[in-house]
Specification:
Blueprint: E1 5-11, E2 15-22, E3 27-35, E4 43-48, E5 54-57, H1 63-76, E6 86-93, E7 104-105, H2 108-116, H3 125-138, E8 144-148, H4 158-161, H5 167-172, H6 182-195, E9 204-210, E10 214-220, E11 223-227, H7 249-256, H8 262-271, H9 274-279, H10 284-292, H11 296-320, E12 325-329, H12 330-335, H13 337-344, H14 356-360, E13 367-368, E14 377-380, H15 385-400
Parallel strand pairs: 1-6, 6-8, 9-12, 12-14
Antiparallel strand pairs: 1-2, 2-3, 3-4, 4-5, 7-8, 9-10, 10-11, 13-14
Helix pairs in contact: 1-3, 6-15, 10-11, 11-13
Length: 404
């Protein structure tokens, strides 16, 4: 019998998120997080299915030590990395450029290309590489699969993917719109079609992935035709700490008039802008609390956030021509009813509306929040990027016969 388990690793610069799944029924056997890697205050939280969470604190020097600690915790539950039931390890890799359009078994050539893409993903690809190389040392015999955030968006036509700059310059430096959160957009668009009882190949969906990072996508028949993030995750919607769309001349202005360096502007736009730049908070719950108390600065931040979101909904409605559903997902999209209501307010002429009672209901299941008989369905669909990574990894490895 073929092995059925997949370990999913999401390696950040100072953290590793992980899940072990059994692909026979997509059940989670264990989930966990290692954070503050490289600090004295490192922490590992591990939760086995049906069991109590365990935590350990203390210095975890690097990703090698982190994954060894993860392996030890899994082994305590009889789920060790040496198990013959482990089919593969699936890695989230943020940037795959134009090269990687689907999940890929990792070899030296793949590693080299991920490394070559570091200039367009300097915060993410190095950490992803570290996680891959560490996992390869721990299980050199096991297939390692890269699942790329950008892959789902490689179906965008050139008219959507290219910026209107000199073609030679753009091609030389690989400047184009790549998009991110692709595993989430892929999963949610497909799950939305299933919720409607439709085939994904016949369903048009606007997906709104709203978390601290936020992105929108227009999905026609299961294929992305446009998305809001671009060369980097900075473009598009207003986010927790990122500005999203902005006149690029602002950068030149800040250099010439403000005397700011490129690094200072990079930090400003990526870490000190968006909601936190507008009102000092990037937690939507806190912002809504402040709005309810009459805080004008929080109200303005919320209004700017919604205005940008509404513009993208309208734009993607135009791109698709026919919309079967708008799907909200991720932390804010799944939990912030006021955001969903405000984003679609005034769009009844487009067939978009939210039922107040349905919208107020909280839950972990995919559900409709549009009025009965609405022309366009509005859905809340909890995202599951780990399951999507595991599914793609398992299908590739088992389908190719490339497993232990």
């Amino acid at each position: 019998m073929s092995p059925t388990r997949v370990l999913v690793l999401n390696s950040g610069s100072s953290s590793v998120k992980y899940q072990l799944l059994d692909m026979r029924d997509s059940s989670r056997l264990a989930v966990g997080l290692v954070e503050r890697i490289g600090e004295q205050t490192s922490r590992l939280k591990h939760t086995p299915a049906g069991g109590e969470s365990r935590e350990r604190e203390g210095a975890i020097a690097d990703h090698d030590a982190a994954l060894k600690a993860v392996a030890e915790e899994l082994a305590k539950d009889g789920l060790g990395l040496d198990s013959p039931e482990l089919a593969a390890i699936g890695h989230r890799v943020v940037h795959g450029g134009k090269t990687f359009t689907e999940p890929t078994v990792i070899d030296d050539t793949v590693l080299a290309e991920i490394e070559r893409l570091i200039p367009v993903a300097p915060l993410h690809n190095p950490a992803n590489l570290t996680g891959i190389r560490t996992a390869q040392v721990l299980r050199p015999d096991l297939p390692q699969v890269a699942v790329f955030d950008t892959a789902f968006h490689t179906t965008m036509p050139e008219s959507a993917a290219r910026y209107a700059i000199d073609v030679k310059t753009a091609d030389e430096h690989r400047v184009r719109r790549y998009g991110f959160h692709g595993t989430s957009h892929a999963y949610v668009s497909r799950a939305t079609a299933e919720l409607l009882g439709k085939d994904p190949s016949e369903t048009n969906v606007i997906v709104l992935h709203l978390g601290n990072g936020a992105s929108a996508s227009a999905v026609r028949g299961g294929r992305c035709v446009d998305t809001s993030m671009g060369l980097t995750p900075l473009e598009g919607l207003v986010m927790g700490t990122r500005c999203g769309d902005m006149d690029p001349a602002v950068i030149f202005h800040l250099m010439r008039v403000g005397g700011m360096s490129a690094d200072e502007i990079d930090t400003l736009l990526n870490k000190k802008s968006g909601l936190i730049g507008l009102c000092g908070d990037n937690d939507m719950r806190e912002i809504r609390r402040r709005v309810d108390e009459g805080d004008a600065q929080a109200e303005l931040a919320f209004d700017i956030y919604i205005h940008r979101l509404k513009k993208y909904i309208g734009a993607y409605y135009a791109v698709l021509g026919r919309v079967d559903a708008v799907a909200f997902t991720a932390g804010v999209g799944e939990n912030a009813a006021p955001v969903r209501a405000a984003a679609l307010a005034g769009l009844a002429e487009l067939g978009l509306a939210v039922d107040g009672e349905r919208n107020a209901v909280r839950g972990d299941e995919a559900r409709l929040i549009s009025p009965e008989g609405a022309r366009v369905a509005v859905a809340v669909v909890p995202t599951d990027e780990e399951l999507e990574i595991a599914t793609q990894t398992y299908a590739l490895v088992i389908g190719s016969g490339n497993h232990t």
